[in-house]
Amino acid sequence: MPLSEYADLGIYHSMIDPVGFFAALADPFRLRCLALISARGEVCVCQLTHALDAPQPRVSKHLGVLRDAGALVQRRAGQWMLYRIASLPDWATQVIAGALASIADEPRHHADLRRIATAPDGPPPTISVRYLRHEANA
After folding, report:
1. Is 93 within 8 Å of 43 (Cβ atoms)?
2. Is the pLDDT of residue 15 over 90?
3. What is the domain class of 3-137 according to CATH?
4. Whole-number percent of the chain with pLDDT over 70
5. Hey, where are the domains in the chain?
6. Dihedral of the CA atoms 97, 75, 55, 120 (nearest 10)?
7. What is the mean pLDDT of the chain?
8. Longest dimension (CA), the chain
9. 39, 116 in Cβ contact below 8 A?
10. pLDDT number for residue 3
């Protein structure tokens, strides 16, 4: 079972394999994905494909590696698959912060940030059914 499936069980932190975690961060394309997700908080695959100018299968494959290493969590919102940085132990958070700091001044990173700003919108904000019923009765 991939580590990401343990996230909801509250045992996620203790199961991160440091070697797999470092290996996942060692790929430049995955680091670019992680930097964009970190900058935006939560990003759908379609926004990353636009920002990275890469085909969806390539982006999804690399996101899967980061997810399986414990760096990302995903959730589905309708047709969208959304990714965000996982709740991590301190050592892993520091590693990610250092890795992202190392590319912060790179022109490619700045170009990625400009492109993601023009990416298509992701899923609409979630509105609870309770709120909609309340508004309908008001």
Report:
1. no
2. no
3. mainly alpha
4. 78
5. 3-137
6. -90
7. 84
8. 56
9. yes
10. 44
For the stretch 65-113, pLDDT in tens is: 999 999 999 999 888 899 999 999 999 999 999 999 999 999 999 999 9
Residues in the chain: 138
Instruction: Provide the token pair at 77.
Output: 């919102």
Hey, what long-range contacts does 16-23 have (CB within 8 A, 24 or more apart)?
A: 16/69, 16/70, 16/88, 16/89, 16/92, 17/69, 17/70, 18/91, 20/68, 20/69, 20/70, 21/69, 21/70, 21/71, 21/92, 21/95, 22/95, 23/69
- Mapping DSSP onto H, E and C, the string for the chain reads CCHHHHHHHCCCHHHCCHHHHHHHHCCHHHHHHHHHHHHHCCEEHHHHHHHHCCCHHHHHHHHHHHHHCCCEEEEEECCEEEEEECCCCHHHHHHHHHHHHHHCCCHHHHHHHHHHHCCCCCCCCCCCHHHHHHHHHC
| Bridge partners, 44 (sequence order) | 82
Strand order in the sheet with 43-44: 43-44, 80-85, 72-77
